[in-house]
Structures are given as C-alpha cells and as structure tokens.
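Please go through this chain and its backbone structure tokens and walk me through the local backbone shapes. Keep your notes short.
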Amino acid sequence: MVHTLNQSANVAMDPPFHEAYKALLGETAAVPRGSEVVTVEEWELPVVDLRRLKAVAAVEVEECKKDIIKASKEWGFFQVLNHGISNQLLAKMRAKQMELFKQPFERKSKEDQFLNFSAGSYRWGTPSATSITQLSWSEAFHVSLSDILGSNGSDELRSTMEEFAGKVSRLAQKLAAILGENLGRSAKFFVENCVPSTCYLRMNRYPPCPVPGQIFGLMPHTDSDFLTILHQDQVGGLELVKDGKWVAVKPNPDALIVNIGDLFQCRLGVTMFTKA
C-alpha cells in the first residue's frame, strides 16, 4: 500500500543526497541542457465503481468482478471508485504524512528511537547506486502492518495510520478474493495467508531534484507483492509501461489506484513496470 506526496526542499528535513551522491551527480555535467526533457503522454486507467459489488442484481455484481479481472489482465493497473476510504481520511493521512516528513532527517533516520517504527522502516536514495540511472531521489517510510494494527493509537499519527491501514487492508482483501476466485482459490485464501507482518504501509516523498529528467523519483520497477493500493496526489508523477511505451497516469482525486504485483501477475499473465 502506498501513499505519495511531493513537497518543497528543506535542508534540515531532506536526506543528504548531494553529499552522498556527489560523484554520481557529477555525471550530469556531461549531458547537454534540454536533452533530459522527455514528453510522456498522459492516460486514464480503467475505472471500476466498487459500489456495483453491493448491487441487488447478481448479474451486476458479476459484471463488476469481470471488469476487475479484465483490467488486471490487460493493464495490471486500474482505478477504483467508492472504495470505502473517505476523502476526509485520505486528507488526514496526507496531512499527518507531511508532518512526519517535515521532521529533521536526523530524527527520521532514527525511527526506532523517536517514532516507534521498526529499525529499517525509513529509507532514502539507493545505497547500491553506481550511476545516476540507478538512483532514486526519494525518501520513504515502509512500515509493517504488524507495527500499526492494534497499536491503540499512541499518538495522532499512529491512530490515523491504523485507521487508514485497516480500511485499505479490507479493500485489498476484497479485491484479492475476487482475483483469487478467478484463479481457483478460496475467497478466504488471502485473508488467511496475508498476515500483517507481510503487508506494509509505505509513505513516499519526492524532494525537488536538481536534474529532473535524468534521475528518477523511484527507479523503474515491478512490485513484488500481490497487490499495491496507491493514493496519488494531484502532482501526479506515476508512470507505467503500456503497449511497450511509458505513459503517465492522470490523477483522479476520487479514485485509488490498484497495481497487480508480481505474485499475481505470474498467474494472470501480465508484466507491468512503473516509475515515479
């Protein structure tokens, strides 16, 4: 599960990208200015209204399930409306996330001491990068649901995270049950096997980059899990490969984005790459 945001640069809260990647950033001097600008066409993803799953007519429920399966097979991505997470909760989660990222880097990087998250939850950059094409200009909190659910909301951030993660988890289980049944699995299979310690709430921030177009917010990748549910803000930035070319996903403030991960894709017969 992913919740993204973008905000202005601040030396105190930003990770030390320039210091850590000084040599790699020197590579950009050899690239002529203007050559990094790439225009990516903006597309709308398939949209599924989940309210149809509660329809009285069984035929409408089945048609909604078929639309989910079709979008998963043909795109690997789709958007859902009437998903059960209110705009108020999304706005509150975003606000608390912004407060979290505005804390000093030295405090964020000691998340187990100051934030009660497991050590290693806070991540930034790409430690193994040997060129700018391997560098991700971003920071994130990748928090296990076992650290969140049942925490009894010791502060407003954790109580908001717990409410958000609980609702999104139920949405993920509902979608996984539909896809799993299509693959011959019991509707309860994912509820029984996807335990909190294997599920994560990821909060991303993409600080302003000095060489946009040459460095990714996140490197092109596939998600290795079953499902990722993403809330994209109006800044946008999410891109994916469709029909052999990169396309940008048009933000929809009323929708959540569902990404079919590698573990499902190998059964559905699709492969999707994304970047930010």
Remarks:
- The chain is about 30% helix and 20% strand.
- The two ends are 15 Å apart (CA to CA).
- Confidence is low (pLDDT under 50) at residues 1-7.
